[in-house]
Amino acid sequence: MTEKKIKEKTQEKSQEGITVKKEENFSEWFTQIIEKAELVDLRLDVKGFTIIRPWAALTIENMFEHLEKELQKKGHKPTFMPSIIPKENLMKESEHVQGFTPEVFWIKNTGDNKELALRPTSETLYTPMFKLWIRSHRDLPLKLYQRGSVFRMDTKATRPLIRGREFIWIECHDAFATREEAEAQVQEDIDTTEKVMHQIYGVPFLPMKRPEWDKFAGAEYTVGSDCFMPDGKLIQQPSTHLMGQKFSKAFDATFKNKEEKEEHLWTTAYGPAVSRILASVIATHGDDSGMILPYSISPIQVIIIPIFNAENKNKIIKKAKEISDKLEKENIKVEIDEREYKRPGEKYHIWELKGVPFRIEIGEKEIKNNEVILFTRDIKKKEKIKLTELKNIQKLGKEFDNRLRKKADKFMENRLVSCFNKKEIKEALSSGKLAKINFCSTDKSGIKCAEIVEKELYGDVRGTLANKNEKPTGNCVICNKPATKVVYIGRSY
Amino acid sequence: MTEKKIKEKTQEKSQEGITVKKEENFSEWFTQIIEKAELVDLRLDVKGFTIIRPWAALTIENMFEHLEKELQKKGHKPTFMPSIIPKENLMKESEHVQGFTPEVFWIKNTGDNKELALRPTSETLYTPMFKLWIRSHRDLPLKLYQRGSVFRMDTKATRPLIRGREFIWIECHDAFATREEAEAQVQEDIDTTEKVMHQIYGVPFLPMKRPEWDKFAGAEYTVGSDCFMPDGKLIQQPSTHLMGQKFSKAFDATFKNKEEKEEHLWTTAYGPAVSRILASVIATHGDDSGMILPYSISPIQVIIIPIFNAENKNKIIKKAKEISDKLEKENIKVEIDEREYKRPGEKYHIWELKGVPFRIEIGEKEIKNNEVILFTRDIKKKEKIKLTELKNIQKLGKEFDNRLRKKADKFMENRLVSCFNKKEIKEALSSGKLAKINFCSTDKSGIKCAEIVEKELYGDVRGTLANKNEKPTGNCVICNKPATKVVYIGRSY
Description:
The structure is a homodimer of 493-residue chains.
Chain A: H1 3-9, H2 26-36, E1 40-41, E2 51-52, H3 54-73, E3 77-78, E4 84-86, H4 87-90, H5 94-100, E5 116-118, H6 123-133, E6 142-151, E7 166-176, H7 179-198, E8 206-209, E9 221-228, E10 234-244, H8 246-250, E11 254-256, E12 262-264, E13 266-271, H9 274-285, E14 302-306, H10 313-329, E15 334-336, H11 344-353, E16 358-362, H12 364-368, E17 371-376, E18 381-386, H13 393-413, E19 416-418, H14 422-430, E20 434-439, H15 447-457, E21 460-465, E22 485-490
Helix pairs in contact in A: 3-7
């Protein structure tokens, strides 16, 4: 569903639960989730610009924290670059400018004579600075990043969190002395995606080296992370681009190597779009009752619902606070829902919709028995546990996240299928699967077969596995010429 | 010194130390610091848009962390709002639009028929959303914030970190049911500035309720935090605006009160500009050798310099790593400067320039004696300490920050002076002081006296203390009519 339609539907905000099943109508399910769990708001009514509300913003902040920690561990340092790029910078690399010019927002009144673009991506900000900051091999590698907004006038249907005209992400721009080091960085970035997006957020992916005709404008090659949506379509998550020496040559960014000779830098760029990954988190883990957030990134990990009446209110709230204090001391994100004007059942419903991993219910009876009722969101299990057992929550949280990840992994495994003719590919694609085939070439010469895949089979050649060298076992399934690659074909968002 | 001049000077990057004394030429000192400590870079050459380099970016991230933690503790929740504002929103509140229109950057090609401004501030984004999100007194208070960029086409001289056309800050936008609650929020914001900017970053301030003629465009009143620069001039740091019902009326944002009657919301806005506060941190604490960063926000709290030759290198690096591991376990931010191509003396110099609070020197002799040399940046004290004493670093860090804050407090105290005639005011202002005087009025009727202060004495009426009710003791020092206020007069950035 497009952003416009969603906006129309959300004019009247609804308090009821999710009214469709995720498996039956994923698109409508997603639309209802982002509205009813109060994640985003589209009523500003400017195409592609979304307001992200606290529950999503808090989750996104937690996601940034994991990602930035991992990037810093791997030697990246933060920067703040301007949100604008002077036109002369943007025009320097010819493929880049061709690719991005149609998408650029320009500023009307720049205050001086410089033409300024809102940045669609920041290669043309970082590379000229590399030229100034890097003099010798001793200054290398230089690994920088920024978190912030970029702006692209996307003409395709915009969708909240998934595809916008402004989106928030991290951009890493790294400079190296050799091709080998730059290529190793591409693999390190795949590893970062694995460590954070898969291991922590629980979203599996296939790192795909894109075919020549589908790379980033200005890159030597691009590796995109393909994730499955529940309807079997693919969505591109973090991608890494080996820029090689294209940008360093365009900006004449050199360094003195160990032999004191001037060489051009080798650069890479890595871009995880955190709000978009949140869309994958929601889509991957949620169920018919709403979101299910991984314990590691949920703004509230344990919600306590005290069950009280006018008489015993103080006593029960007091006990709830004791529990909350104890959990907080163990660095657990906990909150008590004390609202008097909502019934416990309504509260259960709200926090299930928002995907909080654990709920503790505590009333008169529980206090008497020194126990609480613990509800686990993903498996919807309700059990009595002794107060002393609450110290296990962190462990249960890890198990929670493992369960989510394993379930997602299994979903993905079931979606991969080897195909040996067009009919098999077509069948695979229409049942939401990814077809693995022998293919003639991912260089320019393969483009004809890719067009056949697109026109006849309504699929995209997503590329070859970037972290594994898969050898073809026969001829190209499309043209029957000798195959040089094993490619994956899917339908995409 | 303006940004343009600084840029010219920094074309040739210099590696030498600071060549001027802070007391003798603060402006040049500041310029050299931000260049030589590698804080910002102006060579992108677009007026008012600055590149913030890793050392400053890491410090700013630490500053954000303290500030956001305090705001969240006080019930604020994060959001991400679009970087743009539709023209129709911006035009709704008449004083606001008059104040901001000349400063707005407009987008040339918006992709549809909507005219879009880059946001100069976000009242006109939050208030229409308050209208949609808040229905009843039960939804109040609603306290939101965002961290991000805003854009203002400032025509005054731009200065790196201090005054730019894009700056990064936090904006809090809060909604309440009553004037009393909104006014209490203004005081809470002053308290947040005290807790974070003064207690943690060590920068003292005076909360000034600005005169009627100097308030934020669209506010009922404004409280600015005035901080001293070393040359005695004032710089405005976080300000809070009581919007009252001006914006809620412009957007017709109402709620149902306890009696089920519709009322307009009361709103406030609070805006700490973190990059600008960094300028105050640098200016307040630095000395003739460079920056001095508070322990609480320094990206590196302890730098270890191993003193080695080819023979004993491995042994000494190993010991340095042991020390580093031990400190890291206590959550101390520590780094070893292992570079072989720099002499220890150069390293001392670099890290002093960057303002790292503690330096540990360790060589052959120190290992033998189970000790290290500890250098403390602010007091420049070098002392031998036993390895076992390193566990005191966190405590020493707190003492370090207390010393910085007390020194800054003393500087400020010495700058306040009561004046009883124009001559005294003029003398106070020319010696970089803040004059406290009896004044006729801070309403519109006082504007004539304010103009005299400006034209004859070259000073600004900064306002009245916002957290203390000071009663005048005589007539207005300017016009000799009965005084209603005690105001402070200073010169400003």
